[in-house]
TrEMBL record:
Enzyme class: hydrolase
Record has Protein biosynthesis as a keyword: no
Signal peptide limits: none
Protein's name according to its UniProt entry: Inositol-1-monophosphatase
Cofactor: Mg(2+)
Family: Belongs to the inositol monophosphatase superfamily.
EC code(s) of this entry: 3.1.3.25
Catalytic activity from the UniProt record: a myo-inositol phosphate + H2O = myo-inositol + phosphate
PANTHER family associated with the record: INOSITOL MONOPHOSPHATASE, INOSITOL-1-MONOPHOSPHATASE-RELATED
CDD domains per the UniProt record, alphabetical: IMPase
Sorted UniProt keywords: Hydrolase, Magnesium, Metal-binding
Domain of life: Bacteria
Length: 271
């Protein structure tokens, strides 16, 4: 696992350095995905290509799932079936607008279990990393690594909760409806714009919990492991793993309370 983590850290750093060096004053969208506001830049694609090249060079038998390039490759290795799960820029709209919450997210999965995760929040100079069973750490230039622990013992009414919104109008309408019910029940809401960074914020105790409908595997795999290794729970709305239908993250106790608040609101639907 440490070998996987070391390689993922090196690649995430290189991709982040490239993005900082090549980012123009105002990146432009070159394509869209789920809607006209769900955008892709040329540097999303360049970052993913760099990551794919480095993974293929170091581990040619591994599969890669990337947000931009889909699923490629994959053969049995001596470690098992290894898959790299890549978001080359999580928070592309933030990247376009010059906001600081965007990240390179890389997770490594072996036989269906994520064993290493890296989230490089590039503008903040913060790299979050975790290996399964070994805890989670935050690396900042010039400072010793910081061991991460999520906040515990926070009641729902005092919890600072992060969330995010989709790009389709029907989904946003439901998310606004859900938010109107959640907001009076918690301390406050934060919307950062990057699922990966939000999950790391739970791990670092910067927010108490997180929920969102819409994040895909490349959004939550690395950050989910980092949060888990910092003591949080990460899962779906009615048990099971996190999913695009709903991802919830918080310390035990708050996790169940947040999930219990959300479930009656039927937040997995679209208008």
């Amino acid at each position: 696992m440490t070998d996987f983590l070391g390689l993922a850290v090196a690649i995430a750093r290189e991709a982040g350095d490239m993005l900082l060096a090549k980012r123009p004053a105002r990146p432009e969208a070159v394509d869209t995905k789920s809607s006209r506001t769900d955008v892709v830049t040329a540097l999303d694609r360049a970052s993913e290509e760099l990551i794919r090249d480095r993974v293929r060079a170091a581990r040619p038998g591994d599969a890669i799932l990337g947000e931009e390039g889909g699923h490629t490759g994959g053969t049995e290795t001596e470690q098992g079936r290894v898959r790299w799960i890549v978001d080359p820029i999580d928070g592309t709209v933030n990247f376009m607008y010059g906001l600081p919450d965007w990240a390179v997210s890389i997770a490594v999965e072996v036989d269906g279990e994520v064993v290493a995760g890296v989230v490089n929040v590039v503008p903040r100079g913060e790299l979050f990393a975790a290996a399964r069973g070994a805890g989670a750490e935050l690396f900042r230039d010039g400072l010793p690594p910081l061991r991460l622990r999520c906040n515990t013992g926070v009641p729902l009414s005092q919890a600072l909760i992060a969330t995010g919104f989709g790009y389709q109008a029907g989904r946003r309408a439901v998310q606004a409806e859900v938010l109107a019910h959640v907001l009076p029940k918690v301390r406050d809401i934060r919307r950062g714009g990057s699922c990966a960074a939000d999950l790391c914020s739970v791990a670092a105790g910067r927010v108490d919990g997180y929920y969102e409908r819409g994040p895909e595997e490349w959004d939550f795999s690395a950050g989910g492991l980092i949060a888990t290794e910092a003591g949080a729970l990460v899962g779906g709305l009615r048990g099971g793993p996190p999913a695009a239908s709903m991802t919830v993250c918080a310390a035990p106790g708050l996790f169940e309370d947040l999930r219990g608040l959300l479930a009656p609101l039927d937040p997995e639907r679209d208008a």
